[in-house]
Structures are given as C-alpha cells and as structure tokens.
Amino acid sequence: MSVVTMKKLLESGVHYGHQTRRWNPKMKPYIYAAKNRIYIIDLNKTQEKLDVAYAALREIAERNGKLLIVGTKKQAQTIVVEEALRSGSFFINQRWLGGTLTNFRTIQKSIRRLIEIEEMEASGSIQVYTKKEIALLLKEKNRLENFLGGIKEMKKLPDAVFVVDPIEDANAVAEARKLGIPVFGIVDTNCDPDAVDYAIPGNDDAIRSIRLIVGLMADAMVEPKGGVLQVAYQDQDEEDITMEDVIVNVEQQAAENDRRRRQRFEERRKRDERRRQQRYNRPNDNRDDRRPTENVEGNTKTEKSEE
To answer: How far is residue 149's CA from residue 163's CA, in Å, rounded to a whole number?
Structure first.
C-alpha cells in the first residue's frame, strides 16, 4: 500500500511540470506526456519515489535522527515552518547562509549570539544599554532570528536534508552532499534528479503540491513517535486512478480554462462596446445657445438667440 494515492497527487496538481522548452533531459524517465506545451509527470513514478523516500525518512526517525527542511521560495516558506514544527524538525525558509552546514562551527557562534541577546531581552539586562545600543542589538537579533531561528536548537549536523526546490536552494544541496548527508528533494521537469539522493518527481511551484509532499515527509518523521499522520495513508479505501485518467483530467481542465478565457474575452468586449455606446449617445446638456452682444454702455453681455 502506497503512502499516498494517485488521486490525491492529481488533486494537488503534482503532475504538472514546466513548459516543454524548459526541461532537463535527465527527467525524461519521469515524464509521461506533453499536453498544451506542458510536461505531465508520471504519477506512478512519483508514487514509487514517495514510498522510498518515506521509508528512508521513517528509518532515520526511528534512530532519533533529525531532519532539516529547506524551502526559501515564497510559496514554500509558510509550509516549511508549519511542517517542521509539527514533526520536530529544523527548518530554513529564508536565504541560505553559505557555510550553514560546511562551516557549522561559525554558524553556532551566531546562534549563541542570538540566544545571548534573547536572554538579555528576557531578563531585562538589556536596559543597561543606551536606546541607540538597544536598537542595534534588537536589529541584530531580528536578523539572526530571520536566518537562523529555525536551526537555533540544532546542536549538531542534521541526519537528513529535505529541499523543496534543488535549483533554488542548490547551495544547501551542495553542502549536504559534500558532508555525506542524504538529501531528499522535489524534482520538477527542469531539475537534475541526480543532484539529490532521494528524488521525488513533482510540481515544486504549486502550493498544494508542496504542502502534500512536505506533509508526507513530516509524517515520516512523526510516525515512529506515535504522532498523528495528517497526509500519509489517507483515503486508501477510495478507488484509485490511472495515468489515463490523469490525461483525461488535464484535457478537461485545459478545455475548461479555454472556455473561461473566451468567456472573459467576450465579457470584456461587451463591456468595451457598452462604454463606447454610452460615450457616443451621451445626451446634450440642453443649455441655451447664447451669443455675446454689447449693450449701449459697451459692456459685453449674453443674449438668447432668436429662432
């Protein structure tokens, strides 16, 4: 039994890849077809890779290993925080600082500095400084919290790294692989699947797709601890679908999008036509036709013209 159904993958839009002009030839084994100049990812392959990645992460969690979730692109930032907190994992959702893993000792110094300022603020001892110095300290704290808040409790290197977008966060992938840390990642049709150890073919741009896959990885970390699974093994009693059903759905969705596009165009055309008619048929102001005349004193006045 797979950890997730193909129907759920379809509903989350995991099957949509990039445009056909933007692709990596190494992703060819994971591409089922191309429709409307968009690659369609083979959800059978996605399902298989998700099962493998889930089992590997669950094994790491059984050994009390820790996962670092990295997702700095805008649509992934909130999801990364939520799922990391739910699964007791570390996270980085802002810019990756060079050396976060390969120069971890230096990063630990920055983390200790962050904790020091937080303790000063909590105890009130920060008040011994001038207002300007306090402002500078708080600014430093906010900057460190922004970049290192998600790994503040990380005392040693993580046992695994999950990356939402291996292209966006290539530095994180490179550092982890240099240190021999297994890397899990979503690989869209423009990615190199060989860049990570556990490649999961899927849409790395859509929020629903990211939420589903990151949620599954979080469930893998939660399951050995007896936690509640929010994504894995859900809706298993429903009849699943095939890739033929996926293609039919894609074609139907494309037809519906085309219909809506034509409808919006027609509504816009009618609206513009009404505006033109209103402009041309605007009624006269019915003001009297007046012309200037001069009275006997030579002053200018207006006189109603006689018909």
So the answer is: 18
Looking at residues 146-166, what average pLDDT do you find?
A: 95
Q: Residue 303: CB partners within 8 Å, gap ≥ 6?
A: 290, 291, 292, 293
pLDDT of residue 294: 54
pLDDT digits (tens, 9 = 90+) for 78-121: 999 999 999 999 999 999 999 999 999 999 999 999 999 999 98
Q: What are the C-alpha distances in Å from 74 to residues 78, 96, 204, 210? A: 8, 13, 11, 11
Burial class (CB in 10 A: 0-12, 13-18, 19+), 76: buried
Closest C-alpha among 8, 26, 20, 15 to residue 196: 26
In angstroms, rounded to a whole number, what is the distance separating the alpha carbons of residues 206 and 211? 9
Domain 102-156, CATH homologous superfamily name and number: Helix hairpin bin (1.10.287.610)
- Kindly tell me if the per-residue pLDDT of 299 is higher than 90: no
Q: Where are the domains of the chain?
A: 1-94+157-274, 102-156
Fold of 1-94+157-274: Rossmann fold (3.40.50)
Would the pLDDT of 277 be above 90?
Answer: no
Nearest-5° Cα angle at 50, 47 to 55: 130
Start-to-end C-alpha separation, the chain: 95
Encode pLDDT of 233-261 as tens digits.
887 777 778 898 899 988 888 888 888 88
Q: Are 189 and 195 in contact (CB under 8 A)?
A: no
Task: Please state whether 38 falls in left (phi above 0), alpha (psi between -120 and 50) or beta.
Answer: beta
Q: State the amino acid at position 164 in one-letter form.
A: V
Question: Quick one: which of 22, 185, 178, 162 has its CA closest to 104?
Answer: 178
